[in-house]
Sequence to fold (502 residues):
Amino acid sequence: MLKVTHLKYFLLFFILLLLKANLALPSYLIGQIINVASQSISLEGMETLLTYLLLSTVVTISISPIFTYFFEQEVQLNVETKSRILFSQLIRKPFSHFKRLEIGSLASKFERGIGSYEQFINLSVSRGLPLVIELLVFCGAIVLFSGWGTFALVIVILATAALIKTLIIRLRRPHIRRVNEAEDEILDQLVGVFSGIRTIQSNRVEGFFEKRIAPFFEHYRQTTVSLAVSRSVFDGVAIATHSLMSLSIIALFIFYLFPVQHADAGALVTALLLSASLTRAFAGLLDVYRLLDQSQEDFSALKEILSHKGEGSEVSELLSKALEELAKPNVKTIAVIGKSGQGKTILLDTLAGLLTPKPVSPLSSNYLEQNNFVFSGSVYDNLSLGKEMDSDWLTSQLDKIGLSSRLSLDSELHGNGQNLSGGEKRRLCFLRAYIHSPELLLLDEPTTGLDSQTGHDLWKVIFSLLEPQTKMVVVTHDNSYLDHFDKVITLDEVGVVPYQPP
Fold:
């Protein structure tokens, strides 16, 4: 299989080489046609040259699309593989780092990182490699058809242009970084605004948020304008290079080669056409370098996330108390209560192994987070999370939590469970945490946002389904069911305090 792949790559490269070599032929043929035409007013002697010119054009037009199809297939296969690898790495990064990232910014960095890698492959392989071959072909053609003097002149001009453009590319990097940061800021703001769209529209305060986000759009406009100016300077150098190249070659022929009869009109035309093609290929290659530099800058934010090492979480008094209680055989259910901001959710994150390099508890855990995670797909997929599970058993579990009359395993759920009520989402998410048979069940505010009756019904479901071998830690502000727990841990400003029943 590996040999076949190598043979395929070699064949593609060989066809590419032939196509690029064919590009230099028309310049030479046109020069020869001009020489023949200058010596005769008839077409005699030009038939063969015109036939070769026509065949060269037909070959390029007919083979290029076929080559591009197979070439792009290989390029996009590489991009697809890399995209999967990057997502796999990203989704396994320490949870502590994701908590510090805004959702919009994270999505933007991932999309930009994948896009920059695709651009890198497309530029370096689809454009860069053909342009390098094209550049070498035209360099050889200039030496062969126009001589070393013309070639030396061309190289001096191109080298000067390369130095100027490289300087411009380096000066562009801070501008690219500022544009990316401005994009991330806008996405963060948009995610924040649209996540609270009901509140905004119900209070008729759209204008207030339009004013709040306006400075971010203005900042983005300013950064993109400065980047566009640097691009125009870059393009201006390319135009100046082409003009200077043509004038220099004409001067070389008129003041040096023509007087000593080392060249004729056809040779001048050939030199001008070849130098124009070489300049175009060279400008394209420098543009590839510019875009590669920009894609590297775009990829840097995602690379920073992927290279981030997780930070350890300190063992707090609350964590020590929870681990102490979990170690007791007679303590099966623990409730953690207290004011917001005391570290209760951090406790669950730590027990779940999301904040520490190594697990702090020997018990395998499953987590019902406060924000119900439901994704677009079937009920079966949302419950099984890709694992093979018995459909009849899952249906019976749906019946136990009172959802079988409303949902089947084949029912399609919309993004974030938009076609479910708040209580239905909480039940479904609890069932997902429960059915994977964890030794430690972690619940973060399971009844938050529910009315008292719906919350009471959910508590009954939770305690009725809890397996004998499963322990449970629940963070809650709902005091109505605390008497059902084996242990209640209370937090206040000074730390863990004894629980005082109402």
Remarks:
- The mean pLDDT is 77.
- Residues 2-307 form a domain with the ABC transporter transmembrane region fold fold (CATH 1.20.1560.10).
